[in-house]
Amino acid sequence: MEFLVKQICLLFALFLPLMAYDSTASDNAVGSNKLAYLIPNLFGNNGIVLPNVAHTAHFTSALQSNFGPFTTSLVSQLTSLPIPSPASGFIFSFDKSLGVYSQSTQSFGPIYAERAETLGKNKFFVGFSYQNFSFDKLDGIDLKRVPSVFQHQPAGQPNYVRDVITTMNSFDVKFGQRAAFFTYGLTDRLDVSVALPFNSARIEAVSDAKIQRIGTASEPDIHYFDTPFGDRTQKTFARSGSAQGLGDVVVRVKATAAQFKNGGLAVGIDARMPTGDAYDFLGSGAYGARPFMALSWRRGNLSPHLNLAYQWNGKSILAGDLISGVTGDLPDQVQYVAGLDYGITKKFTLAIDYLGQRQLNAKRVTRTTYRGANNTIFPQIAISDASFQQSSLATGFKVNPIGSLLVSFNLLFALDNNGLRDMITPLIGVSYTF
């Protein structure tokens, strides 16, 4: 019976990626209700259009130059969120004197990092984890206070185009990840794993807009909002949406490259399938490959480890132009982890890791200013391409309450404000090894 369960789970895990979601087939119309269009269409499908029928008052050019890249910067970072390692907490080796497999480590291993040991021939591991991100900042900018200035498109009256619309925008971005992991030991030195993430995304955007009548101060009937009463220079725009479903499936092959006394070196590769709906931020919209190496060794109950990886990403609509449907290259990443796990008792292990990654040629958001025609200075954001470093600290523990069952808990702390950041992210997981 146990053998049958293993085979069914393994076949399910291996063949699910073949049902990959085709993100290019998604509804990519400008008026789509997909989450990727929520921020660009915050003011309507055509941007900010004022109601004066006698004057074409379009404030749309800044919508494309500011909020389009802002959305790209926001969602492309969602593809680089850390996920727990699919490696088992229990590692088994064959005891020739006894003719059986026995547990060969005195700690249950790291949570986000990878160690050199493989699972063991014919051993099967299944695990589940949940982590929830509630993002606070993007490149150090508070997501509750993102400024932007919208300029008037060219018009016949020079004074009209001197007016601008200033906005203060608030974005509530939440992302939940429930992941199932399956690992099978094909040999004593070779594992195959599959990670199945089930994601949920929610975005709420609120913009407080104000018309700055720089060129039409004496003509209040030129530029105004269609508010039924009160100050017609101000209006609040709001949109929200949510989605959930299968994320990007990851298939892993890991092999022991070298063994030495109390340690070893493993190499492997992760292959990411674009099974998640990119237009709803559930997936990256691009294939990816992540070759990695893991070095670990043991000194009694203490197990230090080092990881090094390169994440290659293909083309995705999230890194391109959502409006035109042109794809772009998702940023590649150099990733590294250094940490240790310590088996305090046979039932309890502490784990701590430093997680670093360098985003290569990624979108960055910076604060800047806009000088109006009357020399008034308004806060603004700007988008640029640059490489940058992100650092995090993971601290957690694993408990073995019974049999081969493990319960994990971790807190992930952001150590900088680079990129999209949740300052503290909790994780809880359970796993079992057959």
Short description:
This protein is mainly β and 434 residues long. It is built from two helices and 23 strands.
CATH topology: Porin
Number of domain modules? 1
Mean pLDDT: 83
Strand order in the largest sheet: 5-9-10-12-13-14-15-18-19-20-21-23
Form type:
elongated
Distance between the termini: 12 Å
What would you say the CATH architecture is?
Beta Barrel
CATH homologous superfamily designation: monomeric porin ompg
Describe the main β-sheet briefly.
Answer: 12 strands, antiparallel, barrel
**Share of helix, binned:** under 10%
Beta-strand segment tally: 23
The number of helical elements comes to: 2
Our estimate of the beta-strand percent is: over 45%
From N to C, what is the helix and strand string?
HEEHEEEEEEEEEEEEEEEEEEEEE
